[in-house]
Design brief:
By secondary structure, the chain is mainly beta. It is built from four helices and 39 strands.
């Protein structure tokens, strides 16, 4: 049979270790350098896309062992391949051609993983099906050879020789910090991640993350670069500062995409991708577009028009989200697996409404206008003074933006200490976004009250977005009244504030301050001191801490 005939075969399968292996190998498609097809080099299945990309997949363990684009090898650093987790180990690996698609399937215990190549494309499509937690699968990592995409981005520590924390946060000689954790981005903020240099772009185009956890505002490592090389990640389940349990099932496709230096085609973005070509490939857990539904809302009332709103859908099996239109709150979320979901409306990153919606395959569920009760948004409460905005994040506070891509010890960080005066106009920008027991516990807010205000008891609220080592605020007023130590809310148990993430569980602490605590001299400043209470944690920036959303004193 000729090479041309082999490439035209509709469906042909090669199974490692099968009784017919030798005979099938002799018949397998032998692709020329420029032709679409596959071959067997003894250790790997070699797939030529017929464009400028040739890839190899190990027949032993399903690792991606080679990515040659326009004659240059991009795969590999430190003697390691690209793979699920850190490599699955011995697996059953098969290859099958179906018209213009070649599919390599990897089975390891209960986990199944897939690579697909399409004729004439410089892309590799991947799916990973986690049936349960018997096989660890937190990521797929593309390992990229050293020296190909040198950069000095926050998640690159090529030029950062000094270790700051654990074995994954580093400092450059100029005092700036670097870590693979410092991506700057929430999941909802990006469609792809990667590098471009010398007329070549190498990208990881993320999936819709329906089987990951953490929601639209979750932050995790996306890529890294060191002296050894670089890594691009598709997160399958990441435990750092995680607020949800692991979901199981098929995630994908996510795409390894090569370009001539530009961004990957928008047709590869999960919201735009047409995967009908994969419907009949037999991918375990695959659900075609026809087996999915859509949720649309005609609008949302009761919004703060100055804030962005996001609508999220979540249950134990899947998660989705979409932006609400700024003019009227209209939203549409497609590609949703059938089931009943909790629907959450977020103002910024703060949940202000929850409901329930059931999705049916092949249909659109249209919801009437959603009304957000005034009491659900803490910003609507009348306050004597307020620091920050109730939006579920520390945005606007001192060092808040920097902390998504730097360590708190970074030379660019403003002093973590210092007190604030209500009415100065800089209350929020002067108040530190994070408080730690061993760093800046006892930050003081000075404020005046009128005679009528000082004659009454008031409620103080402190909103937080996460905590490390059960850090929570305890307050004193004028050094004469001290609050009880509040009960710590449920928060992730891992590092958070030092690895670029404030995204935990939003929680509001309330304190009933009696009238006797206030100064009666209306010209004098009351002093509110905010301490961090906890019996856990270590020292410095790994002592118990918390991230601030907003602080206010209600009328």
């Amino acid at each position: 049979m000729s090479d041309t005939a082999n490439r035209a075969v509709g469906r042909r399968t090669f199974v490692l270790g099968s009784a017919a292996a030798t005979a099938t190998a002799a018949l397998a498609g032998r692709a020329s350098a420029a032709g679409f097809g596959w071959s067997d080099d003894g250790s790997n299945y070699v797939v030529d896309t017929g464009a400028s990309l040739v890839l190899k997949v190990s027949k032993t363990n399903g690792d991606l062992t080679s990515l040659v684009y326009k004659g240059t090898e991009y795969q590999g650093y430190g003697g390691k391949n690209s793979h699920v987790e850190s490599g699955l180990g011995t697996s059953t690996v098969t290859i099958e051609q179906s018209g213009p698609t070649i599919l390599v399937s990897v089975a390891h215990g209960t986990l199944k993983h897939y690579y697909a190549a399409r004729s004439g494309e410089n892309n590799v499509y991947l799916w990973t099906n986690k049936a349960d937690d018997s096989v660890s699968a937190t990521r797929y990592i593309v390992r990229v050879r050293t020296g190909l995409f040198l950069n000095d981005e926050p998640d690159s520590y090529t030029y950062a020789p000094t270790t700051v924390e654990a074995s994954d946060v580093f400092r450059k000689s100029d005092g700036q910090t670097r870590s693979k954790h410092y991506s700057k981005l929430r999941v909802a903020d990006y469609d792809y991640i990667g590098w471009s240099a010398g007329g070549v772009g190498l990208w990881m185009v993320r999936s819709n993350h329906e089987k990951t956890s953490g929601g639209p505002f979750y932050r995790s490592l996306l890529r890294h670069q060191s002296a050894d090389g670089g890594g691009l990640y598709e997160i399958l389940y990441y435990g750092e500062n995680q607020t949800e349990a692991q979901r199981f099932g098929l995630q994908g496709p996510y795409v390894i995409a090569f370009t001539d230096g530009g961004a990957p085609s928008s047709a590869l973005h999960h919201a735009n991708m047409d995967t009908s070509w994969a419907d009949a490939l037999g991918i375990s857990g695959y659900v075609a577009a026809s087996g999915r539904g859509r949720v649309a809302g005609v609008g949302i009332t009761g919004r703060d028009t100055a804030s962005p709103y996001t609508v999220g859908l979540a249950n134990s099996a899947a998660q989705y989200w979409g932006s609400a239109r700024s003019s009227d709150g209209y939203f549409s979320i497609g590609g949703v697996l059938p089931g009943t979901y909790t629907l959450t409306v977020f103002k910024g990153e703060l949940a202000v409404h929850t409901g329930s919606v059931t999705v049916t395959a092949g249909t659109a569920t249209t919801l009437n206008s959603i009304a957000i009760p005034s009491s659900n948004d803490p910003s609507n409460a009348s306050a004597i003074w307020r620091i920050g905005d109730w939006n579920g994040s520390p945005s606007g506070f001192k060092n808040a933006d920097l902390m998504t891509y730097a360590h708190p010890s970074d030379v660019r960080a403003a002093s973590w200490t210092g007190n604030v005066v209500v009415g100065s106009g800089t209350e929020t920008s002067s108040f530190p976004c994070y408080l730690w027991k061993d760093v800046n516990s006892g930050v003081t807010v000075y404020f005046r009250l009128t005679a009528a205000q000082a004659a009454a008891a008031h409620t103080l609220r402190i909103g937080v977005t996460t905590a490390y080592a059960n850090g929570r605020p305890q307050v004193t007023v004028n050094d004469t009244w001290t609050s009880a130590v509040p009960t710590p809310p449920a928060q992730p148990s891992t590092r958070s504030l030092t690895v670029g993430s404030y995204r935990g569980n939003n929680h509001t602490f309330t304190y009933s301050v009696p009238a006797s605590a206030w100064l009666t001299d209306t010209g004098a400043y009351n002093a509110l001191r905010i301490y961090v209470a906890s019996g856990s944690g270590s020292t410095s920036f790994l002592s118990a801490g918390t991230s601030i959303d907003a602080i206010d004193l209600l009328t």
